[in-house]
Design goal:
Layout (H helix, E strand, L loop, with lengths): L8 H13 L3 E7 L6 E8 L4 E5 L8 E5 L5 E10 L4 E6 L21 E6 L7 E17 L6 E10 L11 E3 L5 E8 L5 E5 H14 L9 E7 L2 H7 L5 E8 L4 H5 L6 E5 L8 H8 L7 E8 L2 E8 L6 H5 L15
Antiparallel strand pairs: 1-2, 1-4, 2-3, 3-6, 4-5, 5-6, 7-8, 7-10, 8-9, 9-12, 10-11, 11-12, 13-14, 14-15, 15-16, 16-17
């Protein structure tokens, strides 16, 4: 029997996973020159020159030091922040001699998956807190403030692995040593929020390539529904489910595309069946602002194709400047 002497098989697998990911976990030190304020946190290597961390720790203009697992300190700069996910991307002055970890693809973090939040919690070296994925691919809503509504935040994980001050921005890993998420914040009911690894990688890559990440809005909302198999066959439908539109805003991308109430949105860009508004936004986020993405809609028994413009969610600038009111994020809202 393999494993570490005197350690059970499960613990041995967990220790092995931590050993695999540890070289890619870094300690982040940031000093604000104007005030001298010091912030400590965790980051994870994205590639040989970039690190993902949390915007709770760093900001453009900070004096930033990244300490790698070998104990060496390297200078870095913040090349961009994402106001929606509180992510920051750091670029190091010299190439990191560390292989990036494996980021889990979209859809590979089921509820019940055992995970570990890794980092430098409470300023301690190499901490780990364990739990499971309590809920996968969740959407919560951040208030814009001053009565201006809420902004949907898609692609989140709820986990019972505790996030403490210091390990936010670090990786949430599975027993294979894959990064399945980026540690976010303690939330409520004993669970914490994390960002899906695929979402975090997409946001970071867009910041590196374009200076910002794409966060689209729909201008309509609805509820998922399933179509009876008889109607699927009679109407020759590509899927048996979709999103039934219940409300269309008067001045939004949906209205400009021609979306109407009681339409059933079945596919976006000809891809997989639509099961939520968050799925539509996720597909749109892989495009650029100004693109027009095909939207397959069932209307009165007929399939039609509309073209939805990719537009930035209103109020994002308020989040970027910290102009939103202090209020907990919510789950029960629509766009």
């Amino acid at each position: 029997m393999g494993g570490i002497m005197g350690v059970d098989a499960f613990s041995s697998a967990l220790i092995g996973a931590l050993d695999r990911v540890r070289p890619a976990v870094v300690h982040v030190y940031a000093v604000t020159p104007r005030t001298g304020q010091i912030a400590l946190g965790t980051g994870v290597v994205l590639d040989h020159y970039h690190v993902i961390t949390t915007a709770q720790v760093v900001a453009p203009g900070d004096e930033i030091t990244v300490k790698t697992a070998d104990g060496k300190r390297r200078r870095a700069e913040c090349v961009g922040l994402d106001p929606l996910y509180f992510l920051a991307v750091l670029r190091l002055e010299e190439r990191l001699p560390v292989d990036p970890p494996t980021f889990a693809p979209d859809g590979t973090t089921p509820v019940g998956l055992f995970v570990v939040a890794v980092g430098y919690a409470l300023g301690q070296e190499h901490t780990a807190t364990s739990g499971i994925i309590s809920s996968a691919d969740r959407t919560v809503y951040r208030p814009k403030g001053r009565g201006r509504g809420n902004v949907p935040v898609d692609g989140l994980l709820l986990t019972s692995a505790a996030v403490h001050p210091g390990n936010a921005g670090g990786p949430l890993v599975d027993l294979e040593g894959r990064v399945v998420g980026i540690n976010g914040i303690p939330w409520q009911g004993g669970v914490s929020l994390a960002i899906q690894a695929a979402v975090a990688a997409r946001v970071a890559s867009q910041i590196i390539d374009h200076g910002f990440a794409v966060h689209p809005w729909l201008g309509f909302s609805g509820e998922p529904d399933v179509i009876d198999d008889i109607w699927v066959e009679m109407l020759n439908l590509p899927y048996n489910r979709g999103l039934v539109v219940q409300h269309v805003q008067t001045d939004g991308p949906g209205r400009r595309a021609g979306v109407e109430e009681m339409d059933m949105v079945m596919a976006v860009g000809g891809r997989q069946p639509v099961t939520s508004s968050g799925m539509i936004r996720k597909i749109l986020s892989s495009h650029r602002y100004g693109d027009r993405v095909p939207l397959t809609v069932l209307r009165q028994g007929e399939l039609i194709e509309l073209y939805l413009p990719v537009e930035e969610v209103p109020g994002l600038e308020a989040l970027a400047t910290g102009d939103d009111e202090e209020s907990p994020m919510r789950e029960d809202d629509d766009e």
